[in-house]
Amino acid sequence: MLKCSVGVMAHNEEKNIARLLEALLGQELLGVEISEIIVVASGCTDRTKKIACEVAEKNPKIKVLVQEKREGKASAVNLWLKKAAADIMVMESADTIPEKDTIEKIVIPFENPEIGMAGARPVPTNDPKTFMGFATHLLWNLHHHISLKNPKMGELVAFRKVISEIPVDTAVDEAEIEAAVKKNGYGIKYVPDAVVQNRGPENISDFLKQRRRIQAGHLALKKKGHSVSTSNGGKIFLLLLRNMDWDLRSLVFTPLVVLLEAWGRFLGWYDWRIKRKKHHIWEIAKSTKKL
């Protein structure tokens, strides 16, 4: 039986935290045991802490840790790493929902002692008929196709507890853990049938907030010697052409998404190279919280 600790880093997630915890408690498990669910409520000014504590009162498996001041997601991750008792860690974004067998599927790969990290497949709930919904689905579909050949971790990941902390100033925690796992000699695995629902930005402002922050974080990580599989723009463009639907909506929307993504990456480069901004305490993209 593989035992895991599930960590949920939450800042003002009152709209989704109860649903997420219930989804985790209701997981269908055979060869995996969730030994604990740790919620780190970081600088919350809404009802996140209260809701999490109410669920925890009925389920002793849930523990709620509180950071009175918001110090960034990496700081919350480090607190979880310090308190977690299991050897296999499962980290889920607080604004996502796993399918009923996702935790089982993402942890089972650790039966192989050479695997050090596994990633689920994020599937957005946005309406693909709208422009922003189309953009979100396009990016996550590309993420999926890239990960089939060269895994890229995001939204819901599992990893061996081979690290005690990550840099507190990182803006890309999953990528930072991915780099550390590889450095320790382990392989990583993408599990496409381990599905987790997420919500992409519903406006351009929120889209750019996310894309520039992620790009700045990836550039900082690249400076330390680790490049994520989604950083090669040329390969992504070729993959886009191979998997593109050639209908009218795609022909109109796809070039606009490419331009928007390019602008977001430029802004991320500007933040990293010129402004020296680290984004570890990032501005919330509020439209992604309506799962």
Q: Report helical residue fraction.
A: 40-55%
CATH superfamily: Spore Coat Polysaccharide Biosynthesis Protein SpsA, Chain A
Average pLDDT confidence is 93
**Could you tell me how far the N terminus lies from the C terminus, measured between alpha carbons in angstroms?**
32 Å
Query: How many helical elements?
Result: 9
Strand content: 15-25%
Strand order, largest beta sheet: 3-2-1-4-7-6-8-5
* Shape designation: globular
Largest sheet: 8 strands, mixed
Poorly predicted runs of 5 or more residues? none
* Named CATH topology: Spore Coat Polysaccharide Biosynthesis Protein SpsA, Chain A
Number of domains: 1
Structural class: alpha/beta
Oligomer: single chain
What CATH architecture would you give? Alpha-Beta Complex
Q: Helix and strand succession?
A: EHEHEHEEHEHEHEHHH
Descriptive keywords:
alpha/beta; Spore Coat Polysaccharide Biosynthesis Protein SpsA, Chain A; 8 strands; globular; 8-stranded mixed sheet; 9 helices; 291 residues
Explain what the structure shows.
The protein is 43% helix and 21% strand. By secondary structure, the protein is of the alpha/beta class. The model has no long low-confidence stretch (mean pLDDT 93). The protein has one domain: Spore Coat Polysaccharide Biosynthesis Protein SpsA, Chain A (Alpha-Beta Complex), CATH 3.90.550.10. The relative contact order is 0.15. α1 runs parallel beside α2 and α7 crosses α9. α1 links the parallel β1 and β2. Strands 3-2-1-4-7-6-8-5 form an 8-stranded mixed beta sheet, sandwiched between helices. The protein contains 9 helices and 8 strands. The longest helix has 28 residues.
